Amino acid sequence: MSETRQQVYENAAGLLCRMGYAARMEPGHRLAWEPQPVTALVTDAPPVVVGYAVAMVAEDPEAHLPEASAKVGRAAPGKAGDPQTAWWAD
């Protein structure tokens, strides 16, 4: 049974949360320049940690490593916290 990108990003988000980062999987993340929503991993973790998290939870990490990213709003607008980035694979 093959894992889906949604499963990998959910598991990676859980690992990132346990590591102290804000993280969540969004199955229908909208981007202004993309015609279709994408499955994204949204987090305040740095890029190398995002790659590490995906590699640790995926059976086949290369198939799910994010290839693109875009800044998104803070998790709690108006409150302290690092800006977040949405990561996705094409």
What best-fitting shape do the alpha-carbon axes yield?
A: globular
Secondary-structure-derived class? alpha+beta
The main sheet orders its strands as 1-2-4-3
Termini separation: 22 Å
Q: Which H/E pattern describes the elements? A: HEEHEE
Would you report the number of β strands?
A: 4
Uncertain segments: none
Radius of gyration: 12 Å
How much β-strand is present in the residues? 25-35%
Summarize the biggest pleated sheet.
4 strands, antiparallel
What percent of residues adopt helix (DSSP H or I)?
Answer: 25-40%
Average of the residue pLDDT scores: 89
Number of H/I helices: 2
Keywords:
single chain, 90 residues, 4 strands, globular
Structure in words:
With 90 residues, the protein is of the alpha+beta class. Helix content is 28%, strand content 26%. It contains two helices and four strands; from the N terminus they run H-E-E-H-E-E. It has a four-stranded antiparallel beta sheet with strand order 1-2-4-3. Helix 1 crosses helix 2. 24% of the residues are buried.
